[in-house]
Amino acid sequence: MFHTAVCDLLGIRYPILQGAMQGGGGVELVAAVSEAGGLGVLPTFGGTDQKLREDIEAVRTRTGRPFGVNIMPMGRGITERCAATCIELGIPVVTTGRADPGEAVVRRLKDAGIKVVSVIPTVEHARRMAGEGVDAVVASGSEAGGHVGTVSTLPLVPQVVDAVRIPVLAAGGIGDARGFLAAFALGAVGVQMGTRFMATEESDLNEWGRERLLAMRETDTIVTRAMTGATVRCIRTPEIVTYEEAVARGTDAATLKEMAAQVRASRYGEGKRDRRQSAAGQVAGLITGIVPVADLIEGMLAEAARLAQGLPAVAGR
Ligand SMILES: Cc1cc2nc3c(=O)[nH]c(=O)nc-3n(C[C@H](O)[C@H](O)[C@H](O)COP(=O)(O)O)c2cc1C
């Protein structure tokens, strides 16, 4: 029922992408989403080329289905190296996040036959990426987890749909069949979900993160520059709240820099796996259980099909 242009473009059964998640989604999640008919996407932010190669190999031992690699433009040749590895290893889909990787990189990927999907926070950014020749864009609203802009999903998606001639997917705040269906009503032909996929059996999230996700309300996230320098939506923690209060007081740049370093230093508890700060979106408030990825996807699609049948009746009431 929900077979769209994105399914044909990316060679997937369902129009559902798992947004790359540094610290939230590793090889198990990526493989599980692809195996369940969506597109799993590996994160690369802050990682090495060796780690990317190992991750790609690990996903390939778990699924024969297509999966993607995410490139976060970070400068100093990292973007180019990451693109070169994707080309060398025959990755079918590359998604780009946070910024424009540059026309030259997009062209190299495309020349190698790779489909490029760019996550964008504004209409202008969507137009630029479409002009550079990407195959699709993900219009990601400010309610999303991770790097965000200022426009929320509801107004962003239809404006992007009107502005470009390539397929548009919606992201930001989608966590169940209702959000999935709403994306289609806005003109999207698929969705990308991040936060909801973190609350699955296959995700990388540690116990702290899982407990937090299940307990969170819709107001328990916060946007901060403390993590990467750009605006990132995270789980609200005391450390980030203290930092943002200092920002609001007009604290000087040098002190803020020191405080941001402290926030990042408080990222881990006992060990590296014990991450105590994490990106997450407002949809966290909707999450009530940790489920297997396949159940999440199948359940969402079945419920969306059921809801879709009832829509005209609701509208006519
Ligand atoms: C923990 C976490 C880490 C993320 N890391 C990345 C990343 O490395 N690259 C990227 O392009 N997007 C990243 N994102 C954004 C997601 O790919 C996705 O677009 C977003 O989560 C969608 O919004 P939602 O959380 O409301 O579903 C991250 C999101 C989360 C929650």
Question: What report would you give on this structure?
Answer:
The protein is α/β, with parallel strands linked by helices and 317 residues long. It has 2 domains: 5-205 and 290-315, Alpha-Beta Barrel (TIM Barrel); 207-265, no CATH class. 44% of the residues lie in helices and 13% in strands. The protein has helices at 5-10, 27-35, 49-62, 78-88, 103-111, 123-131, 153-163, 177-185, 195-198, 207-215, 238-248, 253-265, 293-315, and strands spanning 16-18, 41-42, 68-71, 93-96, 115-120, 136-140, 146-147, 168-171, 191-193, 221-224, 232-235. Helix 2 (27-35) runs parallel beside helix 3 and helix 11 runs antiparallel to helix 12. The two termini are 25 Å apart. The mean pLDDT is 93. Flavin mononucleotide binds at residues 19-24, 43, 45, 70, 72, 97, 119, 140, 143-146, 171-174, 192-196, 278-281, 283. Residues 19-24, 43, 45, 70, 72, 97, 119, 140, 143-146, 171-174, 192-196, 278-281, 283 line the site of flavin mononucleotide.
What is the CATH third-level topology name of the largest domain?
TIM Barrel
SS field, number of helical segments: 13
CATH architecture of the largest domain: Alpha-Beta Barrel
Question: How many structural domains?
Answer: 2
The chain-level mean pLDDT equals 93
Superfamily at the CATH H level of the largest domain? Aldolase class I
Biggest pleated-sheet summary:
8 strands, parallel
Strand numbers in spatial order across the main sheet: 1-9-8-6-5-4-3-2
| Helix-strand category | alpha/beta
Small molecules held by this entry = flavin mononucleotide
How much of the sequence lies in strands comes to 5-15%
